[in-house]
Amino acid sequence: MLATISEAIEDIKAGKFIIVVDDESRENEGDLAIAAEKVTPEAVNFMAKQGRGLVCFPITGQRLDELEIPLMVQHNTSRHSTAFTVSIEAKDEVTTGISAFDRAQTIKAVLDPNTKPDDLARPGHIFP
């Protein structure tokens, strides 16, 4: 059953997952989404295990510039021109970067306005 946009917004505010469904003419898939501010290691673990894909998150161009995170490639030839950036990882409070805890820490680091470009390693396990 599809939710209304208002219901989806309320779920996001409450820290719940929603599934955003692509159009049939695009990828015809669903993407798990949760508010980055509400991300926990458990949420990252759920995305990795149940979603079985990359853990990505949207980010503004301004924040990409502030953190000096470049696009992955200058000439994007992928089928849907998905604007992937170089993957990142927080340098502090993480170990290998792949654990759910480490990936949640990286997301939190990007959200922190005090995080600077040198606070992030490249490449990493999170794709803004």
TrEMBL record:
SUPFAM superfamilies documented for this protein: YrdC/RibB
Protein name per Swiss-Prot or TrEMBL: 3,4-dihydroxy-2-butanone-4-phosphate synthase
Entry-linked PANTHER family: 3,4-DIHYDROXY-2-BUTANONE 4-PHOSPHATE SYNTHASE (PTHR21327:SF18), GTP CYCLOHYDROLASE II-RELATED (PTHR21327)
Claim: Ligase is one of the keywords in the record: no
GO MF: 3,4-dihydroxy-2-butanone-4-phosphate synthase activity; GTP cyclohydrolase II activity; metal ion binding
Record GO biological process: riboflavin biosynthetic process
Annotated keywords: Metal-binding, Riboflavin biosynthesis
Pfam families: DHBP_synthase
Pathway in which this enzyme or protein is active: Cofactor biosynthesis; riboflavin biosynthesis
Keyword Cytoplasm on entry: no
GO cellular component terms attached to this protein's record: cytosol
